[in-house]
Amino acid sequence: MQPVTNMQPAYDLKPTISYRPATAKLIGDSLVRSIINEKETITFNQNKTGIEWNINIGAADIYSLNIRYTNPADKNLSGTLQIIMADGTVMKNEKITFTPAKPGKWNYISTNTGSMVNAGNYIVKIIADDAAGVGISGLDVQ
Question: Who's near 21: CB < 8 A, 6+ residues apart?
Fold first, then answer.
């Protein structure tokens, strides 16, 4: 018998898989692929647009998700992160906040899958609710 623990899973023991803008699917008009801070980026130029990556999970577990972004505005902007199963079922629907970034710097949003996910294919979608001007430069899954 083991005592109950509230420790987070050891994410750093799993390999990190990076998904870059070149592999993202663009949803809607007014999304721009460009170079910002020397990195390939997709910028939301209009709200209610989105980007999504098809990810492949190799073993059942809770996975961490890290999104690299830049927000040139002087205020917080908002978006939605969704994790969608292959059959279209939304597993996670989380409001995210893009805090202002210092010039030439990147910010990160760190979250996780919310629950254990089985091996297989999933979609990670980022939707701009009020995020015009935000640039997304990648997704790391660990």
Answer: 33, 40, 41, 42, 51, 136, 137, 138
> What residues does each domain of the chain span?
15-141
CATH classification for the domain delimited by 15-141, as one of 2.60.120.260, 3.40.50.880, 3.40.50.1820, 1.20.190.20: 2.60.120.260
Computed on alpha carbons and rounded to an integer, the radius of gyration of the chain in Å comes to 16
pLDDT digits (tens, 9 = 90+) for 14-51: 789 999 999 999 999 889 999 999 999 999 999 999 99
Residues of the chain with pLDDT under 50: none
* Torsion sign, CA atoms 41, 47, 53, 58: positive
Distance of CA 31 to the CA centre of its chain: 16
Q: What is the pLDDT of residue 78?
A: 98
Q: Is the dihedral of CA 130, 134, 136, 140 positive or negative?
A: negative
Exposure b/e, 4-28, CB count within 10 A at least 16 = b:
eeeeeeebeeeeeeebebeebeeee
Does this model's pTM top 0.85? My answer is yes
